[in-house]
Amino acid sequence: MKNKSNIVRSSVLVLLSLSSALVAEVPAYKVDKSFGQNELKVPPVCVAMAAKDQLLVLLEDGTVVLYDTAGNMTGSFKADMKPVPTTMTAADGKIYLFGTVMAEKTREYQGKKTKVVEAAGIKCCVYGPAGTKEAEIKLPQAASAKDAHFIGKELVIGDYGKGQILYYQLVGEEGKVTRKITKVFRLCCGIFDFCPGTEANSLVVANLGAFKVQTYTDGKKAGEFGARGEKEADFSGCCNPVNVACLADGSIVTVEKSPTRVKIYDKAGKTEKLITGLGELVEGCSTIPITVDSKGTLYLASAEKKCIVKCVPGATEPPAPVPAPSTPVEE
Fold first, then answer.
1. What is the CATH number of the domain that holds 211?
2. Is 218 left (phi over 0), alpha (psi -120 to 50) or beta?
3. Residue 271 pLDDT more than 90?
């Protein structure tokens, strides 16, 4: 019986050791540094990743600033387009800038006609990295551009004005709508953010008014997670999360405002890990734009502080202590 007890004890110790190793291997993030405070005189409104992990930062006045992986500014240019661009994306060595065209319209409310200014379309201009304008692309059926990404060969736009996501096939200097995701988003505060997913033709949406993260593949809903609440794993406030990003392993990064919280969930939304040390990046209802490089490094833009906060992976949690084995009782 003594030998049997020793075998059981050894098996338990092995399992505990394996469990501790697995915990130790779970990646975490830490704040590495912030940059831009001394050179960004205008608030950043969007961040995007170009080739070779070059960070692009779009400022409120339409200036695009380029940074290397160390956070050193390597160049900048001011887009000569009106309206001023508010979001961007990059592909094939080109920078796509998007502005929302506003127009005066007459609306009737309770029998009275009122003139209002509303989002009425998108202007998209394409620039080279040195700031040379190369093209202007027509994008029909959209009222506004709050976010934009290339997913596969298609340009995908988050249109807050009509509460939809549109997929465009670009032919020359014109986009043709191939499909839409519409009538499913509960948007708030003028915020609408999504990101490409890790699966083919997939994307992840921050459906902030519903307090959920939703995934779509080929324009069809594939899954969701999240709930309104005060626990760390929940989303709190008037509407959250405001921004999302995806890591290469399928993990999903969520960004919340008021208070600022950045969390890493597994792709099913079952577990999460909070990044500490960020402080408050914005006040009130505002976005915290985020992008990710090829190494999984996160870059978050703070309009309030006029800076970019860099968070790096690699920090690990200490392994759980292995309890001391009890002495088996001999029979």
1. 2.120.10.30
2. left
3. no
